[in-house]
């Protein structure tokens, strides 16, 4: 899921400076799990904005804010409240914010910083395991992604900074290549790593991505 | 143009290299003075590339200036700051100016340096950079297109003999040699045992080994290096030796001289890191039997 975090309230307030009536939008999926844009955070935001002298005209938690048609439909259902607002403050990932800005002519304000595609370690603890690179090599690396877990994204083994199996960039973390070799070794595999991985084909990850499923 | 370093190593000569950090700025006067003094002592001078991820002049210009002064450079090149287009064009430029030795490095992470907010590139890494150099040497670029004049670099790579677990660093060293590394310059080594293990593992690969020797200037510096530099650990007995010394710098030179002697049977040369005390390099090398034509 997409991991996000609320921007500092002062920053949000500064962006909302020119407006006084605001409609709040959250997302029932990722932003709810991250406690950055669920029901609870919307209430809190409403309180804080009111205390700061703003008027909140209403609020809405969209089932998936990244779903553009749904956002359009749900906003329509809140017609008056949205119309009364000068700005829509969106507590959803950047994709959700853009569903809203596409569906409405109101000033749309992003209330979150969108961080990464995260795995959930346990409640409230998220870790990036995949950076959506467009060409998955997990089959060759024992199911551990060096593109993401190695801060340098190295494809051919550990860098010279690896020390006692730890990463030069974060000595708390295990070097991705130590994890990979250990995993392959435990499985009695090694062969796939003896040949050098060629330079990656970054054209497979050109932005903006798009995908249209065949009927 | 062919590499003199390569000629010497191929002939079985024991070589000595040292490194000089290019200036932060465009005034290369001090750099040239330092290198000039060094050039009389060593076979080749490494020109570092934004060392420690700190911005400095590109190694290309200082390397070319060394050539003008009659000193053979080993131009270091990191993947941290350039994508595959920039790396190839930098290499072609270096070849055009007469640079013959390149040390292919991945590079320290950008978070260590003076621009931690910058975007690290790592489009390629050391193994792939070596493949790139091999391609240019064969007269083609990475996409296979033919070049107008091919390069003829003698390519080298870095190695960290003391890194643990050692076994997992080996496949990468093998890949580096397979990708064209003719020599390794290692990180500083303090233990003959570790050196023996490294030499035993690397010699069958067929690359020359130039062992890193760091001049320990004081016990404080030895402790700093141990605590702060990944992969470097000064053994406690050496730290004690420096602590007990009346003249720690002399003791440091003596230790370095011992390490050079211990390294001699296992390697093809030494890479001396004297960190500003380059004038002591002759003392470190004193007693070393060198069979080359140094003048
Ligand atoms: S290689 Fe890594 S970043 Fe790429 S798709 Fe697979 S898990 Fe994701
Ligand atoms: S120590 Fe390992 S994980 Fe960290 S940057 Fe180097 S290779 Fe990557």
TrEMBL record, chain A:
<dbReference type="Pfam" id="PF12225">
    <property type="entry name" value="DUF5981"/>
</dbReference>
<feature type="domain" description="Methylene-tetrahydrofolate reductase C-terminal-like">
    <location>
        <begin position="110"/>
        <end position="202"/>
    </location>
</feature>
<feature type="region of interest" description="Disordered">
    <location>
        <begin position="191"/>
        <end position="215"/>
    </location>
</feature>
<dbReference type="InterPro" id="IPR022026">
    <property type="entry name" value="DUF5981"/>
</dbReference>
<protein>
    <submittedName>
        <fullName>Methylenetetrahydrofolate reductase C-terminal domain-containing protein</fullName>
    </submittedName>
</protein>
Automatic annotation (TrEMBL), chain B:
<protein>
    <recommendedName>
        <fullName>Methylenetetrahydrofolate reductase</fullName>
    </recommendedName>
</protein>
<keyword id="KW-0285">Flavoprotein</keyword>
<keyword id="KW-0274">FAD</keyword>
<dbReference type="InterPro" id="IPR003171">
    <property type="entry name" value="Mehydrof_redctse-like"/>
</dbReference>
<comment type="pathway">
    <text>Amino-acid biosynthesis; L-methionine biosynthesis via de novo pathway.</text>
</comment>
<comment type="pathway">
    <text>One-carbon metabolism; tetrahydrofolate interconversion.</text>
</comment>
<comment type="similarity">
    <text>Belongs to the methylenetetrahydrofolate reductase family.</text>
</comment>
<keyword id="KW-0560">Oxidoreductase</keyword>
<dbReference type="InterPro" id="IPR029041">
    <property type="entry name" value="FAD-linked_oxidoreductase-like"/>
</dbReference>
<dbReference type="Pfam" id="PF02219">
    <property type="entry name" value="MTHFR"/>
</dbReference>
């Amino acid at each position: 899921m997409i991991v996000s975090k609320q921007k500092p309230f002062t920053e949000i307030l500064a962006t909302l400076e020119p407006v006084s009536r605001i409609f709040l939008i959250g997302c029932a999926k990722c932003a709810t799990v991250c406690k950055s844009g669920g029901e609870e955070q919307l209430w809190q935001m409403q309180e804080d904005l009111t205390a700061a002298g703003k008027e909140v005209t209403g609020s809405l938690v969209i089932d998936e804010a990244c779903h553009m048609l749904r956002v359009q439909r749900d906003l329509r259902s809140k017609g008056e409240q949205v119309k009364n607002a000068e700005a829509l403050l969106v507590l959803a990932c950047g994709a959700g914010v853009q569903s809203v800005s596409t569906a409405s002519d109101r000033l749309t304000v992003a209330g979150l910083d969108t961080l990464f595609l995260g795995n959930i370690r346990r409640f409230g603890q998220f870790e990036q395991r995949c950076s959506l690179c467009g060409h998955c090599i997990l089959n060759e690396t024992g199911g551990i992604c060096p593109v993401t877990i190695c801060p340098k994204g190295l494809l051919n083994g550990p860098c010279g900074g690896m020390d006692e199996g730890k990463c030069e960039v974060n000595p708390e973390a295990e070097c991705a290549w130590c994890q990979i070799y250990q995993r392959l070794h435990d499985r009695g595999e090694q062969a796939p790593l003896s040949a050098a991985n060629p330079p990656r084909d970054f054209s497979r990850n050109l932005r903006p991505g798009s995908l249209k499923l065949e009927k | 143009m062919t590499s003199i370093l390569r000629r010497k190593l191929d002939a079985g000569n024991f070589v000595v290299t040292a490194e000089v950090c290019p200036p932060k700025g465009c005034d290369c006067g001090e750099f040239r003075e330092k290198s000039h003094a060094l050039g009389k002592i060593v076979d080749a001078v490494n020109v570092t590339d934004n060392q420690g991820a700190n911005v400095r002049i590109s190694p290309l210009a200082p390397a070319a200036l060394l050539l003008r002064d009659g000193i053979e450079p080993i131009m270091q090149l990191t993947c941290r700051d350039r994508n595959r287009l920039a790396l190839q064009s930098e290499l072609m430029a270096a070849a055009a100016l007469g640079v013959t030795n390149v040390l292919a490095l991945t590079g320290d992470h950008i978070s260590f340096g003076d621009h931690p907010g910058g975007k690290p590139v790592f489009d390629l890494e050391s193994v792939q950079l070596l493949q790139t150099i091999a391609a240019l040497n064969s007269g083609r670029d990475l996409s296979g297109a033919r070049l107008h004049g091919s390069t003829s670099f003698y390519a080298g790579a870095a190695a960290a003999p003391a890194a643990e677990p050692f076994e997992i660093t080996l496949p990468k060293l093998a890949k580096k040699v397979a990708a064209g590394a003719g020599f390794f310059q290692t990180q500083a080594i303090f233990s003959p045992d570790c050196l023996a293990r490294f030499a035993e593992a690397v010699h069958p690969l067929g690359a020359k080994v130039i062992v890193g020797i760091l001049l320990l200037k004081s016990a404080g510096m030895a402790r700093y290096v141990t605590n702060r530099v990944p992969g470097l650990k000064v053994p406690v007995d050496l730290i004690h030796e420096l602590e007990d010394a009346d003249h720690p710098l002399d003791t440091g030179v003596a230790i370095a001289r011992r390490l050079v002697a211990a390294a001699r049977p296992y390697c093809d040369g030494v890479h001396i890191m004297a960190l500003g005390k380059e004038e002591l390099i002759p003392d470190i090398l004193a007693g070393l039997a060198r069979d080359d034509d140094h003048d």
